[in-house]
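Onboarding guide, step 5: your first structure request.
Type a short instruction followed by the sequence, for example:

Predict the 3D structure of this protein.
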Amino acid sequence: MSVTFGILGPVVAWDRDGGSVGLKGPRHRAVLARLIVARGRVVPVARLVEDLWVEPPAGAVGAVRTFVSALRRAVEPQRPPRTPARLLVTEGPGYALRADHSAVDGWRFEQALADAATLTPREALPRLEEALECWRGPALADFSEERWARTEISRLGELRLYAVERQGEARLALGQAAQAVADLDAHVAEHPWREEGWRLLALALYRTGRQGDALAVLRRARRLLVDQLGVEPGTALRRLEADILAQEHHLEPAREPSGAAEKVWAEAAADYDRTVVHGARARLESTVGLLRNLAVTGGGGLEAARCHRSAAIMAAEGLGDVELTARVIGTYDVPAIWTRVDDPQHSVSVVAAAERTLRALQPGEHETARARLLATIALESRGTRSARGLQAAQQAEQIARRLDDPALLTFALNGVFMQTFYRAGLSARRDRTGAELIAVSERHGLVTYQILGHLIRIQSRSALMDFSGAEGHAKAVDRLAERNELPLASVFTQWFRALRLATTGPAPAAEAAYQAAAAQLDGVGMPGLERGLLPLALLCLRVQNGRPAQMDERTDWGPHEPWARPLVLLAQGSRTETATMLRRLPDASPGLLYEALWCLAAQAAIAVADRATMERAVSALSPAAAELGGAASGLLTVGPVSRHLNELATALRNVP
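The system replies with structure tokens like these:
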């Protein structure tokens, strides 16, 4: 298949490599869209004229033929002159598009939806997710006002809504209620008349333990239907409400315990559910304990835990119990290794709740709770330049040492670690924090913080160019992770080994190792780590080896765009644009990639003799002169910082 077409959004075409095919003006795209809508049938030229113009001009037929000729050149660029077209063909009084069924995203979407209807939920879910990912916006978005497009837009839109609901149904069948909630909530907000969407959302909320929210959703649906349409909810919604009120057993996912451990879990959970009354404060605190375990299990657990954590904090604050709120916020002492927050809005709300709770606690009392709130503020303020984060980390550490509480100290030290990125060159300090975390957690059986300590030391020893020492800590992480069923930790050791190979091995092997490590990030619930990391690692590898950046305009650099793009522009020969972008370069956010980003900026600035940016880079990088640039992340490197500083010094001597 040489060309594919997109109608699930603005009308586009892509070549075999995924590059955009130039379709010229809006009427060229309209002709193509009209032929796609016809699904291989011939559209007469006269009909195309009627569809393209309200009042066709003189020469409209000739214009349509010109549009078709231009489209043929675009979609069949290799066709020899004077040979018949095979894709956009002339037939009888008009034209037809003879594209394979798989060549149009709308047709692929429909086929995937039809296939999913015949599959089990486990088989259907990836097909449905793949189908929904085809959508880039409303179908035929640039022709929404054209009468010839309206029926197709309406039909495809209805199928998309059906697909969202079937995706939610499959997730519920597989026990993924928490993952279903967000998409279904957005679905009913945008399409409030779809009773099936309301039913699935209420059921998903119920299965995540949010019975009150489930009932509130059903009552909201009823109000909308009665007030806006004058109709009562259908049988399915009324039955679900009655079943939730009765807590009918059939509402729970059909899943049988598969072994002794599963049986113990199921029976204990059932006993807890019967014994601890609904709405009890103990339920909130128990929920946070579960979320701590969920967050370190991998497989989307971190993302799900983050979602439920917000709800738990809101519920605790709603009860007006300050001490309970402090425990709900502070008990979530999940070790954090990555300094970019994955959900900034979530972090802002957690910090705000922690600050409110701190102010409400009686002075001189509840010191443990106070320290946990301070450590939470330090962790959730990571990657910012807020002085409050560093202050909170120091205060939490002081209280923990005074109380001689090892669990509290490890939590506080995690906050201290997160707040030691305010400048470059602090790897040795973080190494000492990691060593103390290992020592304290080993003595007191705090496994997750023992892993955290080893991960910190992997990063710091890598930055200090001690790969043998770093490998020892990586092996310790792998042992602990396997023994304690904590697979998320192995994501970081795999990235470390790719980094080590990038420093000591051949570039092709390092590229392959980075690709494999990036694949392990999929679904772990860390978008702040995942987005743009692989292309950044590969760019750093090329710079380290003296090679130009790869020129791919489709690359998603994520938050690293301002530092990566100048080198891409240079590789394209766009020195003026490079210089312009460097003049607008922001300060790199405090974090594990700080040195790497400034090394990339330095190389671009040297190439275009940008004195101001070179001086900024020298100022930022000088404290890390003895470190390996970027290796403090444990993920990637751009070579020794000293090399970049030496090249900057030479360039500055030659720039007026």
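Each response can be followed by summary notes, for example: The first helix runs from residue 26 to 37.
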